[in-house]
Amino acid sequence: MTTITVPITKDLEFFIDEELKLGTSESKAHLVRYALGRLQEERVLARLSEAEIDIKEGRVYKGDLKKLLKKF
Q1: Residue 30 lies in domain
Q2: How does residue 3 score in pLDDT terms, banded at 50, 70 and 90?
Q3: CA distances (Å), origin 6, targets 17, 18, 44
């Protein structure tokens, strides 16, 4: 596991401290990992939504991937 150091605002520091007091998380590191995990999930869901829109609007390509790549 890699460790990074990130400067944060006083507001974020206060928020983290409050979450720890509420027992939302076991540590600052856990809370940050949780938040990044949620952001990652959010991005995946956004990409899935975009893919669903592409399917509904007919922007779907079927066939051999190598042949499709040659077209583009």
Answers
A1: 10-71
A2: very high
A3: 16, 19, 24
